[in-house]
């Protein structure tokens, strides 16, 4: 719990001026500002307060009472000795007060069971908070690297635009000496304009990705931030290690806590069918006064002690039915755990498959990207020497752009799969 609270550090807000944003700072801001985490922290705090023997019913109950009644009465009495008492408008006062203490001695171990259930609820809320933190970190990292991915592709487009500008310059020079016609010039300008439009569209994608990131940070959607980073994928993750650590997931721990909570509810419900014994003690004071009647003054006071025994005999089998429902709820919790483990295992295997597939393609795609860049440079040189055509340059440019797009997508896919596998095993760090 201390580790969980330690990472919720305060970070200064980003000003309107564009600020560099690093992954670690982004995660810290998201953890600090997350409304979901604040709700989970409130649940932890509430369950911590509830985790008390007083809530479980194991502490003494002390009650003080006081009652003072003034009366105006008409009296008409005939005593056994023949005396007749008649009084109209007689005043009377009755004062009672006392302090009573009661403590439960036995009720089928229900108090102890309830206290254990409250402890489990507190631990479960802490696990749910940890799960929420892992989810926020995973979402933060995925969105952060999505911005990096889109910016990387933008760099590829900008390189292609530079090539188109060189191509346009070559065509203009060739046209000036009569080696190119207007068709070549118009086509080259159209290709350049199309790439500039593609760059603007890509910039919109980047801006919207940053907006998604700012939403996770719970910052203003129009805040100006700059991100300069690369996607580095960890390459030594094994499926055996991931599957063997799936039990560390806080979500799995939370459903295990739910099973124990339901088992304790079974015991609590069963305890209602046992006798209940409590010890009572206190001090009473009674005073009554009357201006007329047989008893003009009566006062009594003193301590008392006693035992209270309650034995449930029959209540329409309510407790028995409640216990049976509690047993069914426990079985349901076990099934929910099995479903979660099954789904987490499936997600882990699929993420690992995506991770491995991306890594296998990544090295080849790096070579493709390098070759596509060299090819583009070569074709541009050949175009300048009028050995290659405009179509050859266009094909080389498209090949370069496609290779760049595939490269950043494969890097992002591998990183996203890595993040998901670590989230499932509670191993996310930053």
Which key features would you list for this structure?
430 residues; alpha+beta; 4-stranded antiparallel sheet; 10 helices
Q: What can you tell me about this protein's structure?
A:
With 430 residues, this protein is an alpha+beta fold. 63% of the residues lie in helices and 17% in strands. It starts with a helix and ends in a 6-residue tail after the last helix. The protein is elongated. The chain has helices at 2-6, 23-33, 35-50, 53-56, 110-176, 182-217, 239-244, 250-271, 318-384, 390-424; strands at 19-20, 61-78, 84-106, 225-226, 276-290, 297-310.
Task: Give the arrangement of secondary structure elements.
Elements: H1 2-6, E1 19-20, H2 23-33, H3 35-50, H4 53-56, E2 61-78, E3 84-106, H5 110-176, H6 182-217, E4 225-226, H7 239-244, H8 250-271, E5 276-290, E6 297-310, H9 318-384, H10 390-424
Parallel strand pairs: 1-4
Antiparallel strand pairs: 2-3, 3-5, 5-6
Short précis:
This protein is α+β, with helices and mostly antiparallel strands. Helix content is 63%, strand content 17%.
Largest sheet properties: 4 strands, antiparallel
Q: Terminal Cα separation, in Å?
A: 18 Å
Task: Spell out the helices and strands N to C.
Answer: HEHHHEEHHEHHEEHH
Q: What share of the residues does DSSP label as strand, in percent?
A: 15-25%
Q: Unreliable segments (pLDDT under 50, ≥5 consecutive)?
A: 1-16
Helix content: 55-70%
- What's the number of helices? 10
Going across the biggest sheet, name each strand in turn: 2-3-5-6
Quick one: how many beta strands? Answer: 6
Shape: elongated
**What structural class is derived from the secondary structure elements?**
alpha+beta
Mean pLDDT: 89
* Rg estimate, integer Å: 40 Å
């Amino acid at each position: 719990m201390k580790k969980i609270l330690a990472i919720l550090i305060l970070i200064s807000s980003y000003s309107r001026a564009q600020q560099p944003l690093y992954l670690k700072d982004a995660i810290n801001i998201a953890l600090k500002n997350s409304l979901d985490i604040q709700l989970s922290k409130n649940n932890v705090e509430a369950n911590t307060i509830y985790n008390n023997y007083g809530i479980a019913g194991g502490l003494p109950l002390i009650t003080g009472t006081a009652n003072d009644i003034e009366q105006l009465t008409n009296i008409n009495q005939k005593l056994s000795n023949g005396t007749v008492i008649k009084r109209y408008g007689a005043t009377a006062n009755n004062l009672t007060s006392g302090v009573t203490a009661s403590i439960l001695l036995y009720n089928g171990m229900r108090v102890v069971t309830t206290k254990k259930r409250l402890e489990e609820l507190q631990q479960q809320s802490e696990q749910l908070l940890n799960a929420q933190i892992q989810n926020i970190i995973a979402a933060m990292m995925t969105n952060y690297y999505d911005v990096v991915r889109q910016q990387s592709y933008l760099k590829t487009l900008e390189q292609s635009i530079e090539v188109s500008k060189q191509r346009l310059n070559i065509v203009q020079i060739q046209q000036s000496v009569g080696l190119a016609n207007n068709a070549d010039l118009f086509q080259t300008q159209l290709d350049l304009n199309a790439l500039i439009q593609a760059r603007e569209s890509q910039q919109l994608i980047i801006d919207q990705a940053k907006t998604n990131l700012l939403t996770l940070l719970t910052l203003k959607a129009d805040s100006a931030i700059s991100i300069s980073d690369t996607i580095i994928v960890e390459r030594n993750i094994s499926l055996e290690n991931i599957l063997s650590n799936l039990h560390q997931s806080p979500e799995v721990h939370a459903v295990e806590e739910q099973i124990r909570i339901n088992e304790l509810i079974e015991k609590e419900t069963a305890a209602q069918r046992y006798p209940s014994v409590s010890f009572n003690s206190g001090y009473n004071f009674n005073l009554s006064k009357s201006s007329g009647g047989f008893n003009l003054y009566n006062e009594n006071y003193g301590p008392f002690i006693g035992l209270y025994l309650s034995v449930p005999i029959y209540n329409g089998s309510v407790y028995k039915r409640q216990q049976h429902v509690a047993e069914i709820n426990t079985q349901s919790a076990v099934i929910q755990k099995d479903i979660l483990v099954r789904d987490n295992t499936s997600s882990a295997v699929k993420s690992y498959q995506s991770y491995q597939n991306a890594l296998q393609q990544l090295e080849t795609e790096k070579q493709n990207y390098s070759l596509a860049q060299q090819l583009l440079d070569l074709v541009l040189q050949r175009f300048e020497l009028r050995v290659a055509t405009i179509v050859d340059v266009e094909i080389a440019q498209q090949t370069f752009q496609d290779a760049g797009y595939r490269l950043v997508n494969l890097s992002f896919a591998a990183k996203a799969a890595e993040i998901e596998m670590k989230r499932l095993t509670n191993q996310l760090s930053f």
